[in-house]
Design a protein that fits this description.
With 177 residues, this protein is mainly α. The protein has eight helices and no strands.
């Protein structure tokens, strides 16, 4: 029994040893332009991408405008629905790009505060609160577009959208209204 316990402890310690020798989870990120954001994250913010921000809507029967546009033929959208999807996507994208640019700028400012050792409790709280507020606004923009699409589509189109996106099935417990 003691041998089994020692074997389990040893095998649990090996990944920790390898990790500690590799330099930790942030190794290599110190050379980033903005330490808190990868280049892919910066691009996603600047291009107004969803980044999973609307996942509660998407996975609960509220289609996103970009995917509705992509699936327009398979959803048998009317011309009016196509126009609504395009308008919704355009509004969402424009506002997401605007907010994304601000988030990237504010993250760069936060990074500079630390890099230049000018950070203090007051400017730290202010900058982080500012970033968090912008991130919240960005999420609302994406979620609001999903609300618009839900209203624009019929229940059958929403069901078909979910099917085409690979959602639902026997484990789907959502309540469609």
């Amino acid at each position: 029994m003691k041998r089994l316990i020692w074997a389990a402890a040893a095998s649990a310690a090996i990944p920790l040893l390898v990790w500690s020798q590799a330099g930790g989870p942030y190794a290599g990120q110190e050379s980033r332009r903005i330490k808190s954001l990868s280049e892919a994250e910066v691009r996603a913010y600047l291009e107004g991408r969803g980044m999973g921000l609307a996942k509660p809507a998407e996975l609960n029967g509220y289609p996103g405008p970009m995917h509705v546009i992509e699936l327009a033929d398979r959803l048998h959208l009317s011309e009016a629905q196509r126009a609504q999807a395009q308008e919704s996507f355009g509004r969402m994208r424009a506002e997401a790009v605007r907010l994304g640019k601000l988030i990237v700028e504010k993250e760069a400012e936060l990074d500079r505060l630390f890099a230049e050792t000018k950070v203090n409790p007051e400017n730290l709280r202010s900058k982080v609160s500012e970033i968090a507020g912008l991130q919240g606004e960005l999420r609302v923009v994406h979620l609001r577009a999903h609300l618009e699409m839900k209203r624009a589509l019929s229940p059958e189109q929403v069901r078909r959208y979910d099917e085409l996106r690979g959602y639902g099935g026997e484990h789907d417990t959502r309540q469609h209204k």
